[in-house]
Please model this.
Amino acid sequence: MSDLIVWQDLHMDEAEKLDKSKVIIIPLGTIEPHGNHLPLKTDLSSPELIAKEVCKRTGSILGVSIPFGWSAEMTGFPGTLTLKASTYIGLIEDIAESYYNNGFKKIVFINGHGGNPPYIQVAMANLAKNHRDIKIRNCDWYSGYYLGEERKKEYKGNHAYKAEVEMMMLADKKSVKMDKAVDYEANWTKVWKADLTKIMPKCVDGEPTKANEKDAKELLEAVVTKISEIVEEIKKY
Model:
């Protein structure tokens, strides 16, 4: 385990002396509701927790979190904040460019929001086109690739569900209100998903009531291990 280097905590002389071969880990999320049992920050707090553990395990640098994402389909629910797709793509590119200009050519995003990946991919493609020597990767922690396909089967649904509750149990336990958790199976074939209030009126899809701290610790370990393996591969280049 390495001491955690947090970008925004550095002083100018410390930033200048950093090992430029290190990987920058950037948590990505959004601010949107997750039922009444999880806070609006869930999609940000989860990747922040994972990113800290990955950085300590791999000796990487914890970059500044990007709290806003693309949540336009969630605007029917109270509390949602969203960026336009073009704004989000530009934000990702500008931040990555800034690290590149500081001498860092290895960047890994850890994303916690399902609406973000298409725009992250566009931004990464643009960055790779402009900088042939950049190594950049996005990890959507909630996907089966990182959870493990067998474990993924245990986590029914994909919003405010068991996996997100368990991550928040570890990231900020006091913010989890299990007495308000309700299970709900969203009907994704019902209507076009531009307005998710029609598909999951409770702002829940899954079984949050089944969340527990034992599974939470195993979940975090599985995700951190998988992403750390990817970071270690990137470090070789």
In short: Residues 5-235 form a domain with the Rossmann fold fold (CATH 3.40.50.10310).
